[in-house]
Each structure stands twice: as C-alpha cells, then as structure tokens.
Design a protein that fits this description.
The chain is α/β, with parallel strands linked by helices. It is 34% helix and 22% strand. It has two domains: 105 residues, Roll (Urease, subunit C, domain 1), CATH 2.30.40; 276 residues, TIM Barrel. The strands form three sheets. Strands 1, 2, 3, 4, 5, 15, 16 and 17 form an eight-stranded mixed β-sheet that branches. The longest helix is centred in the first third of the chain and has 17 residues. The radius of gyration is 21 Å and the shape is globular. The structure holds N-(iminomethyl)-L-glutamic acid and fe (iii) ion. The site of N-(iminomethyl)-L-glutamic acid has 13 residues, from helix 2. N-(iminomethyl)-L-glutamic acid binds next to helix 2.
Length: 393
C-alpha cells in the first residue's frame, strides 16, 4: 500500500489503546488523541496535532468521538441453518434449556446447501462487523459428519483465520447409544480430514454432551494433528470442563458459569482464559457467571457472543458488554477490555485487541464521548465507524 493510502484519525476525544505504556490506567487511555494507520497496521499513536509527517495521508476527523480496538469475538457458531425461535419462546414460558436442541440445528444444517450456509454466515459476519467486531472466531459443530464439518470449516475460512473444529458437540442421532463409536470416528476420520482447515479443536464437556475422558481423547487427537485446544465447560452445571482445559493447556475455557473454588484456583494459576458468554445466560434464563469472583482471583477474562441459533442468537459485542457490566459485576473498563484484549488473549493473538505501533489497524469509533457509553447506553447502535486492517468498512 502506498503512503498515499495511509489514514490519520484525529480529533479522538477518548482513545482506548489497551496499552498502559501509552496512556492512563489499565486501558491505556489517551484524550485528544490521533492514530496513524498504514500498511494494515498502526504506525503511530499520540496526541492530536503531534503526528509525524508521513507524506500524503487521508485525514479523518473523529470530532471528539471515542475510539477503541475493534471487538474480538472469540466464540461463535455461525455455520448453521434454520432457527430455534420456537424453542426460545418455550423457554421464556418456563421450559429448561438442554443440549438436546443442538440436534435440531444439526438436522437443518445437514439438509442445507453450501450456498444457504454461506449466505447465513455472510449475513452474521456483516452484522457483527457493523456492531464493531473486527476479528471473529467461527466454530463448526452443527454437522458432526466428516463432510459436514469439513464444509463448515471451509465456509468459515472465507471470513476468518480463527476456525475451530467443534468435533464433539453432541452425539448425532445415527450414533445414538454409541457415543464411544462416535468419538472413535472423530479421532480416526474427522480430525485427520478437518485439521488442515482449522486452527483450533473444541469440545462440549458437559452432562448431556461428552464426559471428561471422551473430551480428553478428542483434544489429544486434535493436538496431535496440529490443532490447539479450547473447551466449552461448566455451562449447564458443575463439571470437569475447567479442570480439563487447565490440564490440557487450553487457550480458553468458555461459559464457566458453574465453578467451584478449586476451578477458580486452577484457572488463576494457569494461562487459560475464562471466556464469559452472557448472551447465553440472557437467552436460556440461566444465572450469569460471577466475573468479579474470577477477576478478583487473578483469572484473565474474555467476553464473547457465543452467536448460535440455540442459546445466544446475537452478534452484538456491545450487548454482551452491557450484560457483563449489569449482570456479571464487571466495571465498564473491565468489560471493554475483556471484549477486546481479553478476546485476543483467548485466541493467543498479540497483534489485535490493542492499538500500539505494529498492531493491526482494527479500530472502531463510537457516537459517544467514551467507551463507558457501551454499557451506559444499552441497545443503542453506537459504533459509527469501523476500520479493519486500516481500511474503512
Ligand atoms: O455454546 N454449549 C454448546 N453449544 C452452544 C449451544 C448450541 C445450541 O444449543 O445449538 C453454546 O451455548
Ligand atoms: Fe458455544
């Protein structure tokens, strides 16, 4: 890219850099700030009017708006067909959520064409970008056959490098009563076929899904095939997910709703991020995880959407930030950090979730004077501008 296509964002009223070496507090906040974006990365960050001379740059005045790193949504399931609005309505009438509903989406996804799945994926990733998400992790998991998981990953790869093989989501109907046979097929056939198309291997470690031993076997096979582990755990009740994630060195354990003191202690001594998904509690009516307890114990926390048709049909990181603040005892600063830098840590990425020279030029601006408004003005579409790799979206 020629310097002529570099962009100077100036007049930023409140800039969250997430680098305490650049600005004030843990969020590294700079007021009256400017950012120089070029060649896909941040070239310079500092006070408005003090930018270096960089030849011909396009100037963009943010007129006092807040700016921050683009959201990193580190947990989504956007490759599916159908919806489960009826199931949601029944739940709001008092019915409990069970993992069994996943099978209805598996049936619809298997029956869909590639073009139908691709259209839904495009719709959801566009929706996510409009609300400020510049990096999205996408899981497979609604196929549970080799060809269906493979096509899910191929379709997801058109939108992100953060692709996840969710091989052990639920035992599909053709393996009813034969979960061990399904796990054997995953290990012997699915993982070898899908590993070249994924970065991560994920499992649903939960009563009604897969127990710790089966999950451990799937994760080990994934790691042997070059994938890095992540875990769905402790969503619907207490269980072994957190311990399994720590034991396997998983980048993240996600949901983490029902945790014991030992779980919190194990997480606090590990490099595993706890990814909280308040959209799921919103939509299932379950109680929210206690982020305060995790943060006070020293656990690194991320917030993500869990976008899926069963438990959290939202792509909105701003909604999840507002829920994290109001329902999970996070401060607005903590929630914004968890939705940006926390997500980056959950994906083991140091080039996103932060605005410092050399980081990816993924920046969002808000029609608001500070990032706090993301929680203070819930439900309002505050994201006014999105730059991804320095390119205005
Ligand atoms: O993250 N927990 C497992 N998977 C999804 C739910 C999927 C579904 O109900 O379709 C989740 O909540
Ligand atoms: Fe999930």
């Amino acid at each position: 890219m020629a310097p002529g296509s570099w962009t100077l964002l100036d007049g930023i009223g409140c800039l969250v850099t997430n680098d305490p070496g650049i600005g004030a507090g843990p969020l590294g906040i700079l007021n009256d700030a400017a950012l120089l974006l070029g060649d896909g990365v941040v070239q310079w960050v500092g006070r408005s009017g003090r930018e270096p001379h960089a030849g011909k740059v396009a100037r963009f005045d943010l007129d006092g708006r807040a700016a921050l790193p683009g959201f990193v949504d580190s947990h989504t399931h956007p490759v599916f067909a159908g919806d489960r609005a009826d199931e949601f309505a029944a739940r709001m009438g008092g019915r409990a959520y069970t993992a069994g509903g996943i099978r209805s989406t598996i049936a619809a996804t298997r029956a869909a064409t590639d073009a139908e799945l691709a259209a839904t994926l495009s719709r959801l990733t566009t929706e996510a970008r409009r609300s400020g998400t510049t990096t999205i992790e996408c899981k497979s998991g609604y196929g549970q056959t080799v060809p269906d998981e493979l096509r899910s990953l191929r379709l997801a790869a058109a939108h992100t490098q953060e692709t996840t093989l969710l091989a052990a989501h639920v035992t599909p109907p053709e393996f009813d009563g034969r979960t061990d046979d399904y796990v054997r097929m995953v290990i012997d056939e699915m993982i070898p076929a899908c590993a070249p198309h994924a970065k991560w291997i994920d499992v649903f470690c939960e009563r009604g899904a897969f127990d710790a031993d089966r999950c451990r076997a799937v994760l080990a096979a994934g790691v042997a095939a070059g994938l890095a582990p992540r875990v769905h755990g402790n969503q619907l009740g207490p269980g072994d997910g957190v311990r399994l994630a720590v034991e396997t060195g998983a980048a993240s354990v996600d949901h983490v709703t029902h945790t014991s003191a030992d779980d919190v202690d194990a997480l606090s001594r590990s490099a595993t991020v706890a990814t909280l998904l308040p959209g799921a509690e919103f939509s299932t009516g379950a109680r929210y995880p206690d982020a305060r307890r995790l943060i006070d114990a020293g656990v690194t926390v991320a917030v993500a959407t869990d976008c899926n048709p069963g438990t959290s049909y939202t792509t909105s990181m701003p909604l999840c930030i507002a829920l994290a603040v109001r329902e999970m005892r996070m401060t607005p600063d903590e929630a914004v950090r968890a939705a940006t830098l926390g997500g980056a840590q959950a994906l083991r990425r140091s080039d996103i979730g932060v605005l410092r020279p050399g980081a990816r030029a993924d920046v969002i601006a808000l029609d608001a004077p500070s990032h706090v408004h993301l929680a203070y003005r819930p439900g309002v579409p505050l994201v006014s501008h999105v730059w991804k790799g320095g390119i205005r979206q």
